[in-house]
Specification:
126 residues; alpha+beta; Archaeosine Trna-guanine Transglycosylase, Chain: A, domain 4; 22% helix
Protein backbone atom coordinates (compact mmCIF):
# COMPACT_ATOMS: atom_id res chain seq x y z
CA UNK A 1 0.00 0.00 0.00
CA UNK A 2 1.27 3.45 -0.90
CA UNK A 3 1.95 5.97 1.81
CA UNK A 4 0.24 9.22 0.83
CA UNK A 5 0.24 12.69 2.29
CA UNK A 6 -2.24 15.45 1.51
CA UNK A 7 -0.71 18.92 1.09
CA UNK A 8 -2.54 22.23 0.82
CA UNK A 9 -0.92 24.26 -1.95
CA UNK A 10 -1.96 27.66 -3.30
CA UNK A 11 -3.62 27.24 -6.73
CA UNK A 12 -0.96 29.37 -8.44
CA UNK A 13 1.78 26.97 -7.31
CA UNK A 14 -0.32 23.82 -7.76
CA UNK A 15 -0.83 24.77 -11.41
CA UNK A 16 2.92 25.27 -11.84
CA UNK A 17 3.46 21.75 -10.49
CA UNK A 18 1.13 20.22 -13.07
CA UNK A 19 2.47 22.22 -15.99
CA UNK A 20 6.07 21.22 -15.17
CA UNK A 21 7.29 24.67 -14.19
CA UNK A 22 7.68 23.77 -10.49
CA UNK A 23 9.65 20.64 -9.65
CA UNK A 24 10.20 21.33 -5.95
CA UNK A 25 7.63 21.91 -3.22
CA UNK A 26 9.04 23.78 -0.24
CA UNK A 27 8.11 23.05 3.34
CA UNK A 28 9.12 24.49 6.68
CA UNK A 29 8.33 21.16 8.39
CA UNK A 30 8.18 17.70 6.87
CA UNK A 31 6.35 14.49 7.61
CA UNK A 32 8.10 12.05 9.95
CA UNK A 33 7.16 8.97 7.91
CA UNK A 34 10.11 8.36 5.58
CA UNK A 35 8.05 5.97 3.44
CA UNK A 36 5.75 8.60 1.96
CA UNK A 37 5.80 7.99 -1.79
CA UNK A 38 2.94 10.14 -3.07
CA UNK A 39 1.63 13.65 -2.45
CA UNK A 40 -2.05 14.42 -3.02
CA UNK A 41 -2.47 18.10 -3.97
CA UNK A 42 -5.30 20.12 -2.47
CA UNK A 43 -5.52 23.49 -4.23
CA UNK A 44 -6.51 25.96 -1.53
CA UNK A 45 -8.94 28.86 -1.84
CA UNK A 46 -10.59 29.77 -4.16
CA UNK A 47 -10.35 26.30 -5.82
CA UNK A 48 -10.83 24.19 -2.67
CA UNK A 49 -10.50 20.83 -4.46
CA UNK A 50 -7.99 18.01 -4.82
CA UNK A 51 -6.63 18.53 -8.33
CA UNK A 52 -4.00 15.81 -8.67
CA UNK A 53 -1.04 14.01 -7.17
CA UNK A 54 2.65 13.44 -7.69
CA UNK A 55 5.35 10.95 -6.78
CA UNK A 56 7.91 11.99 -4.17
CA UNK A 57 11.53 12.06 -5.31
CA UNK A 58 14.38 13.16 -3.10
CA UNK A 59 13.60 15.22 0.00
CA UNK A 60 16.32 17.82 0.45
CA UNK A 61 16.95 19.18 3.95
CA UNK A 62 19.67 21.79 4.09
CA UNK A 63 20.44 25.43 4.82
CA UNK A 64 18.22 28.01 3.12
CA UNK A 65 21.08 29.26 0.94
CA UNK A 66 22.03 25.80 -0.28
CA UNK A 67 18.37 24.83 -0.70
CA UNK A 68 17.75 27.80 -2.99
CA UNK A 69 20.97 27.21 -4.95
CA UNK A 70 20.08 23.55 -5.54
CA UNK A 71 16.44 24.08 -6.48
CA UNK A 72 15.94 27.62 -7.81
CA UNK A 73 15.79 26.67 -11.50
CA UNK A 74 12.55 24.75 -10.93
CA UNK A 75 11.33 26.50 -7.77
CA UNK A 76 8.26 28.07 -9.38
CA UNK A 77 8.64 30.99 -6.95
CA UNK A 78 10.72 34.14 -6.64
CA UNK A 79 13.76 34.44 -4.37
CA UNK A 80 11.85 37.10 -2.42
CA UNK A 81 8.92 34.72 -1.83
CA UNK A 82 11.36 31.94 -0.82
CA UNK A 83 13.10 34.25 1.68
CA UNK A 84 9.81 35.38 3.22
CA UNK A 85 8.53 31.80 3.48
CA UNK A 86 11.66 30.60 5.32
CA UNK A 87 12.18 33.92 7.17
CA UNK A 88 12.59 32.57 10.71
CA UNK A 89 14.16 29.23 9.73
CA UNK A 90 17.82 28.26 9.31
CA UNK A 91 17.02 25.15 7.33
CA UNK A 92 14.26 24.15 4.97
CA UNK A 93 12.90 21.22 2.99
CA UNK A 94 12.31 20.77 -0.72
CA UNK A 95 10.28 17.80 -1.92
CA UNK A 96 11.33 16.78 -5.42
CA UNK A 97 8.29 16.40 -7.65
CA UNK A 98 8.34 13.32 -9.86
CA UNK A 99 5.63 11.86 -12.12
CA UNK A 100 2.59 14.15 -11.90
CA UNK A 101 -1.04 13.29 -12.54
CA UNK A 102 -3.62 16.03 -12.85
CA UNK A 103 -7.13 14.69 -12.33
CA UNK A 104 -9.60 15.14 -15.19
CA UNK A 105 -12.19 16.15 -12.62
CA UNK A 106 -11.17 17.77 -9.29
CA UNK A 107 -12.09 15.72 -6.22
CA UNK A 108 -13.88 16.71 -3.03
CA UNK A 109 -11.70 16.48 0.08
CA UNK A 110 -14.35 15.00 2.35
CA UNK A 111 -16.16 12.71 -0.11
CA UNK A 112 -13.06 11.22 -1.73
CA UNK A 113 -10.55 11.24 1.15
CA UNK A 114 -12.61 11.47 4.36
CA UNK A 115 -10.84 14.68 5.38
CA UNK A 116 -13.23 17.31 6.71
CA UNK A 117 -10.98 20.37 6.41
CA UNK A 118 -7.76 21.14 4.56
CA UNK A 119 -4.58 20.74 6.60
CA UNK A 120 -2.47 23.69 7.72
CA UNK A 121 0.63 21.74 6.75
CA UNK A 122 -0.13 18.13 5.80
CA UNK A 123 -2.19 15.10 6.75
CA UNK A 124 -1.50 11.41 6.20
CA UNK A 125 -4.04 9.59 4.02
CA UNK A 126 -5.05 5.95 4.36
Amino acid sequence: MENKVLLSIKPEFANKIFNGEKKFEYRRVIFKNKNVSKIVVYASSPVKKVIGEFDVGEIINTSKTELWNKTRKYSGITKDYFDKYFDDKEFGYAIEIKRVERFDKPKCLNEEYGVSSPPQSFVYLK
